[in-house]
Specification:
The complex is a heterodimer of chains A (252) and B (270). Chain A is built from six helices and ten strands; from the N terminus they run αααββαββαββαββββ. Chain A has 252 residues and is of the alpha+beta class. In chain A, the strands form two sheets. Chain A has a five-stranded mixed sheet. In chain A, strands 3, 4, 7, 8 and 9 form a five-stranded antiparallel sheet that branches. Chain B has a single domain, classed as Transmembrane di-heme cytochromes, Chain C (Fumarate Reductase Cytochrome B subunit). Chain A: It holds the Pfam family Oxidored_molyb.
Chain lengths: 252, 270
C-alpha cells in the first residue's frame, strides 16, 4: 500500500502548506486577494449595471421603526459640538478641490435647492438592513453648481466624527467615483423620515449613495472635495474603513 | 473486425476500456479530467466560502425574514462559533469578506464551466439524469441506504437513484441558490435584480435563505464524505484523483462485515 501512504503524505503536506499560508502570510495574501476579488466585482458590476439603474424603493409602511445608528452616533469633536449647540445655524458646507467655483453653503441655502425624497434600504456591511425615508439635495446638483474640473475623478466626503471620540482621532471620511456621485439617488440628506436629520444618523447632513453598503453613506459631513486621486488622503485607501481593510467598492 | 466480436464484450462506462485486475476485479474509467478538476476546485471554494461566511455571519449573528431587520425580534440568533471553523481565524469581517468574494468568483466560474461541459458532453444525461427504471427502483434504493449496504460490483458502475437525485439537487438547485441569494444581498446588484429580491421576499430573507442553503451544503458534505469513506475511501478517492475506479467481483458489497458477500456465493446474490 505504498500508493496509499504516498497519497496520505501528499494530502498532509498540502494541508500543512495551506494552513501555514493562511496563518503566516495571511496579511499579504489577503491583500492580494482583496485586490483581485474586489477589482473583478467592481468591473463586473460597473459593466453590467447601467449607470442610472435605481436602487429599489419601498413604501412608507415598510420604514423601519428601529433604524439602527452605527459607527459614530454622537461626535465629540469641539467644532462639531459648537455647531450643534447652535442647532447648526452657523454650519457651512464647503465644496472645493478640483472645482471651478468653490461653494460655502448654509443649511438654509441648501434647502433652497431642488430637493427629493426616497424610501430606500440601508444595508450594513455587518449584514442587517433598515429602511428609511431620506430628503435632501442631489449631490450632482451641487457639483454642477461648483463646476467640476476635467481632471476631477473622485468626490471625497470629509466628516466631523472620529470613532475614537477624541480631538486628535482620525476623522471619518469616504470617497465615491463620479458614477455614484452623479447617480440620480445620490443625496446630501438633511431629513430622515420627514423630520430634521437626528444626530445619531448624521446631523446636519449625510450622504446617501444607495447602491453601496452603509459605511459609504458618510454622516456628519464637513466638507466635500473633488480630487483626481485619494492616495494622499489619510491612509490612502479612500475611506476610514477602507484604510482598515474594507473594500473601496462596497456594492456587494 | 469480426475477430473482435468473438471476444467477450467488456462494458465500457466511458471513452476508455476496462482494465482487468487480479482476483476478478476490474478497473473502470469513471471521471474525465475536467470533472476531477472541477470537483476539487469546488471543494476548496466551498470550504473557504463556508468558513469565511461563518466569520461574516458573526458580524451580526441574527437572521430575519422580510425586507428589513427587526432587531428586537430575530427569527433565529446564532450561538458563538469556535475559531477553528472561521476564515480568517478569529473574527475579522474585512478579511473574511476578501476571502469570501474571491472564492465566490472561483466557485461561480468553476461552476459555470462544469455545468456547460456537463451539458455539452451530455455527461449529465448519461450519469446523473435518472432513468425510468431508476425511478421505479427508488424503494429498494431507500432500503439499501437505510441498511448502509451498497454494491461494489458491476452495480457500482452507475450511480444509484438516490445518489443521482441528490447530486442533481445540489448542482441544479442548492449551489445555484447560493449565488442567487448571495447576489441579492448586493446593493449594487439590487439596482438591476429587484425582481429577484422581491421573489425572495427582501434582502433579509435572501440572507436567511443564503444561510439555509449553506446549511444544506454542509449536510450534503457530511453525508457525502461519510458515504465515500463507507463505500471505500481509497477506491473513491483514487477515482476522483486518477479517474479510475475498481469494480469488485459480482456480489460484493460495502456494508456491515457480517453481510459482506464473498465471490463464492456470487450465484445467489440478489
Amino acid at each position: 500500500m505504498n500508493r496509499r501512504r504516498w497519497l496520505t503524505g501528499a494530502v498532509a503536506t498540502a494541508a500543512t502548506a495551506l494552513l501555514s499560508a493562511c496563518g503566516q502570510a495571511g496579511t499579504s495574501l489577503a491583500e492580494q486577494a482583496r485586490r483581485m476579488g474586489e477589482g473583478l466585482t467592481r468591473r463586473t458590476q460597473r459593466l453590467l449595471i447601467p449607470r442610472d439603474a435605481l436602487a429599489p424603493t419601498y413604501s412608507r409602511a415598510e420604514i423601519s421603526p428601529d433604524f439602527r445608528a452605527n459607527g459614530s452616533t454622537d461626535p465629540a469633536a469641539s467644532d462639531y459640538l459648537a455647531l450643534k449647540a447652535n442647532d447648526f445655524a452657523d454650519y457651512r458646507l464647503v465644496i472645493d478641490g478640483l472645482v471651478e467655483r468653490p461653494l460655502s453653503l448654509s443649511l438654509a441655502e441648501l434647502r433652497t435647492r431642488p430637493s427629493q425624497s426616497q424610501i430606500t434600504k440601508h444595508d450594513c456591511v455587518e449584514g442587517w438592513t433598515s429602511i428609511g425615508e431620506w430628503t435632501g439635495v442631489r449631490l450632482e446638483t451641487l457639483l454642477n453648481e461648483a463646476g467640476l474640473k476635467p481632471e476631477a475623478r473622485y468626490i471625497v466626503i470629509h466628516c466631523f466624527d472620529a470613532l475614537t471620540q477624541t480631538e486628535d482621532g482620525d476623522r471619518y471620511y469616504e470617497s465615491i467615483d463620479l458614477i455614484d456621485a452623479r447617480h440620480p439617488q445620490t443625496l446630501l440628506a438633511w431629513a430622515m423620515n420627514g423630520e430634521t436629520l437626528p444626530v445619531p444618523h448624521g446631523a446636519p447632513l449625510r450622504l446617501r449613495v444607495e447602491r453601496q453598503l452603509g459605511y459609504k453613506h458618510a454622516k456628519y459631513i464637513r466638507r466635500i472635495e473633488a480630487v483626481e486621486s485619494f492616495a494622499h488622503i489619510a491612509g490612502g485607501k479612500g475611506g476610514y474603513w477602507e484604510d482598515r481593510g474594507y473594500e473601496w467598492y462596497a456594492g456587494i | 473486425m469480426t475477430d473482435s466480436v468473438a471476444t467477450p464484450p467488456t462494458r465500457p462506462s466511458g471513452p476508455r476500456a476496462d482494465r482487468p485486475l487480479s482476483r476478478g476485479r476490474t478497473d473502470t474509467w469513471r471521471h474525465p479530467a475536467w470533472v476531477r478538476l472541477a470537483h476539487w476546485l469546488n471543494v476548496v471554494a466551498v470550504v473557504v466560502l463556508i468558513m469565511s461566511g461563518l466569520n461574516i455571519l458573526l458580524a451580526h449573528p441574527h437572521l430575519y425574514w422580510g425586507v428589513r431587520s427587526t432587531f428586537a425580534d430575530p427569527w433565529v440568533s446564532i450561538p458563538p462559533i469556535p475559531n477553528w471553523l472561521l476564515i480568517p481565524q478569529g473574527r475579522n469581517l474585512a478579511e473574511a469578506r476578501n476571502w469570501h468574494f474571491l472564492f465566490a468568483w472561483i466557485f461561480v466560474l468553476n461552476g459555470l464551466a462544469y455545468l456547460l461541459l456537463g451539458l455539452v458532453t451530455r455527461r449529465f444525461g448519461r450519469r446523473l439524469w435518472p432513468t425510468r427504471a431508476d425511478l421505479k427502483g427508488i424503494g429498494p434504493s431507500v432500503v439499501e441506504h437505510a441498511r448502509f449496504h451498497f454494491p461494489t460490483d458491476d452495480h457500482a458502475r452507475s450511480y444509484n437513484v438516490i445518489q443521482k437525485l441528490t447530486y442533481l439537487a445540489m448542482i441544479l438547485i442548492v449551489l445555484p441558490m447560493m449565488l442567487v441569494t448571495g447576489l441579492s444581498m448586493s446593493p449594487g446588484f439590487n439596482a438591476v435584480g429587484g425582481v429577484l429580491l422581491d421573489i425572495m421576499g427582501g434582502r433579509q430573507s435572501a440572507r436567511t435563505l443564503h444561510f439555509i442553503s449553506a446549511g444544506l451544503i454542509v449536510g450534503f458534505i457530511l453525508i457525502h464524505v461519510g458515504l465515500v469513506i463507507w463505500t471505500g475511501l481509497f477506491n473513491n478517492m483514487r477515482s476522483m484523483v486518477t479517474g479510475w475506479f475498481v469494480i469488485e467481483p459480482p456480489g460484493s458489497t460495502a456494508g456491515p462485515r457480517l453481510r459482506r458477500r464473498r465471490p463464492t456465493d456470487a450465484g445467489d446474490a440478489s
